[in-house]
From TrEMBL:
One GO BP: nucleobase-containing small molecule interconversion
Gene3D superfamilies given in the database record: P-loop containing nucleotide triphosphate hydrolases
Chief site of localization: cytoplasm
GO molecular function, one term: dCMP kinase activity
Region called Disordered, residue ranges: 158-178
Compartments (UniProt record): Cytoplasm
Catalysed reactions, semicolon-separated: CMP + ATP = CDP + ADP; dCMP + ATP = dCDP + ADP
Pfam families: Cytidylate_kin
Statement: the UniProt record of this protein carries the keyword Cytoplasm: yes
Gene label: cmk
Keywords on record: ATP-binding, Cytoplasm, Kinase, Nucleotide-binding, Transferase
Organism the protein comes from: Aurantimicrobium photophilum
Name used for this protein in its record: Cytidylate kinase
Length: 222
């Protein structure tokens, strides 16, 4: 089997990474890897086992029974921990509120980055699109196609608010701002590293963003 083509996409919350990567993977017949789901799943596992997310050693110890499985099929997405389906649960605000705490622990990052590289190397599809915060810089810096997907803070907040009608717009905006600030102390996902192509989706429709991303992937991998 030949080595799969790796596409790396990073960007801040609400820039469109998950939805656009999934759609682009469908168009190209590629697999899709949501790396943020793994950090969210660690946060879910930590809360589920009554572990204190601020206790770094306890979070690291909790990885011993972290039976993590994620689908990389863009048409059949699921996330499981120890056989429990947590696809929806990891999107709840209680998880979003603590995920940055577990994501800043270097041992957790190393553990998950190794897992991501293994998943990318063993896909049975011709390529895989992996998206997150540090894919273009740390997880897959040698990927032939690397994209920074951005959008103005205003656009990102409006998009996230539309997905979370149970939260007020103010709550969603301040949670998103706080998470971006915490996450950007760990990875730089606001400026493109050398060789990374920026796609700014602020004034694009969703379809236009998908087309722009697919175009970059095609031009870099053909
Ligand atoms: N131009 C656009 N580009 C990307 N996403 C858009 C656009 N317009 C609206 N959206 C919507 O914004 C949301 C972005 O959320 P998501 O893909 O989860 O972003 P991220 O993974 O970066 O947090 C999706 O619901 C998507 O349909
Ligand atoms: N490669 C990655 C991906 C996510 N993360 C962390 O995981 C969290 C959730 O990522 P996500 O991609 O689901 O977040 P959204 O931008 O989709 O809301 C982020 O807020 C980061 O704390 C990370 O540290 N590195």
């Amino acid at each position: 089997m030949s080595t799969p083509i790796v596409v790396a996409i990073d960007g801040p919350a609400g820039s469109g990474k998950s939805s656009v990567s999934k759609a682009a993977a469908r168009k190209l017949g590629f697999a899709y890897l949501d790396t943020g789901a793994a950090y969210r799943a660690v946060a879910w596992h930590v809360l589920n086992t009554a572990t204190d997310p601020a206790d770094e050693q306890a979070v690291i110890d909790s990885l011993e029974d972290f039976g993590y499985v994620i689908s990389t099929n863009p048409d059949e997405y699921f996330v499981r921990v120890n056989e429990e389906d947590i696809t929806e649960a990891i999107r709840e605000p209680r998880i979003t509120d603590v995920v940055s705490k577990v994501a800043k622990i270097p041992v957790v990052r190393q553990y998950l980055s190794d897992l991501f590289r293994h998943i990318m190397a063993t896909t049975d599809k011709p390529g895989i699109i992996a998206e997150g915060r540090d894919i273009t810089t740390v997880v897959a810096p040698d990927a032939p196609a690397r994209i920074l997907l951005t959008a103005s803070e205003e656009a990102r907040m409006a998009r996230r608010s539309a997905e979370l009608p149970q939260q007020s717009q103010d709550q969603t905006a301040s949670a998103l701002r706080a998470r971006d600030a915490a996450d950007s102390r760990v990875s730089d996902f606001m400026t493109a590293a050398d060789g990374v192509v920026t796609v700014d989706s602020t004034d694009f429709s969703y379809e236009q963003t998908i087309d722009a991303v697919v175009e970059v992937i095609r031009s870099r991998t053909s």
